[in-house]
User: What shape does this take?
Amino acid sequence: MTKAIDLLFNEHELITKAIEQTHAFLSDVANGSRSIEEMHNRIHFFRNYADRYHHHKEEEILFPEMSKRNELLADGVIQEMLENHADFRDMLADIESTVNAGDIQTLQKQFANYAEALLDHIAVENDEVFHMAETLFSEDELDNIYYRFLDCDRELDEDNKREMEEAVGKG
Ligand SMILES: [Fe+2]
Ligand SMILES: [Fe+2]
Assistant: This one.
């Protein structure tokens, strides 16, 4: 795997881990051992890490480069991936409203739908989109994309990214 794809792949792994932790957290909320209010921190992680740091790299760098190479991709799977990202934003807004309403049963259902859709999306990227990227670009081009990804994290705040990774890593 190239460095560029490896970076996105590792972000997917962390997002997957955060999803598992959130399912466990919501079970604790349902049995009364944790407060639903703590869900705000988790929403912040998905908005910040999954969307602002991760989806941003795909939307601003990888997908436009792939679309320039192949118009069929632009209208096909890339379009589908972008629509998924927009749906995830809407789903998080609904999840936030439900947290504010204090409705754990609806929250568990909404989060289960969000998690399933996000995991499906990640699987399509890992199994199809990233593989296409590695065949579309030369090693130099992929290196260039990698350095643009690093710039992206630097502009957003690398320390903040690392803190989020450590927090999820610790469980
Ligand atoms: Fe994506
Ligand atoms: Fe992704």
User: Anything to note?
Assistant: Residues 104-136 form the longest helix (33 residues). The chain has a mean pLDDT of 96. The pocket of fe (ii) ion (ligand 2) is lined by residues 8, 12, 54, 58, 122, 125 (CB under 6 Å). The chain is about 90% helix and 0% strand.
